[in-house]
Amino acid sequence: MTIKTVKDELTSMPYHGRGIILGRSADGKKAVVAYFIMGRSVNSRNRVFVPDGDGLKTKAFDESKMVDPHLIIYSPVRVLGSKTIVTNGDQTDTIYEMMDRQMTFEQALRTRTFEDDAPNYTPRISGIVRRDADGMNFALSIIKSAEGDPSSVERFTYAYSAPKAGVAKFIHTYKKNGDPLPSFEGEPKTIILDDQDIDAFTDTVWNALDADNKISLFTRYIDIATGETETRIVNKNN
To answer: Domain residue spans in the chain?
Structure first.
């Protein structure tokens, strides 16, 4: 298995779509979260990330240019107790609401399917970070069509217990640029987290994303022992 740095992985292709990075800092003390969006259309690029309590939401940068909020406006990040949920769509709310009723991450996602944006059928990617008495664990999920066939749904969940320090897992929506866009394939990628504070990590991710296609980035460091957080938001549109 090839393990790349954050920079090498993100610069390896110009269009990942939307991506989630979850892992544990090099010093082992922090849970690391990153979520970014990229876009090709005018409607997709007309967005910014804005704080929403302890979570995050998307909004139109220029409301007069918003053509269709469907699949564009949602809450990518919500916090439920010691759990941080991050996704690329309104399944964030599904996970939050069902887990609040004592259901599991996997049970919540069984109620959802890929996005209805034919012919791409964009996968729904989701992640969750949990703090507990033993430290932290996290999981990633992808729901996608079977080789672009909208009649067949594939669901995969990857769980990581006692994750190694200095290592993260990365999942994104598209395998590569194309028309239609082919869905991500295989397990989440393993990437190395350098010994960086949140500002350096944020700069590394943002600067590695393709300048033409990147839109917004959210990063968060969560202290595993105390639950205290540091958050950064970067928007191309200011």
So the answer is: 4-235
User: Could you read off the pLDDT of 92-144 as tens digits, one per residue?
Assistant: 999 999 999 999 999 999 999 999 999 999 999 999 999 988 899 999 999 99
Tokens describing residue 48: 């910014």
For residue 130 the two structure tokens come to: 């949990």
Of 203, 180, 222, the closest CA to residue 84 belongs to: 222
| CATH number belonging to domain 4-235 | 3.60.20.20
Whole-angstrom distance, CA of residue 177 vs CA of residue 158: 24
Long-range contacts of 113-119 (CB under 8 A, 24+ apart): 113/143, 113/153, 114/143, 114/144, 114/145, 114/150, 114/153, 114/183, 115/71, 115/89, 116/71, 117/71, 118/150, 119/148, 119/180
pLDDT digits (tens, 9 = 90+) for 226-235: 999 999 999 9
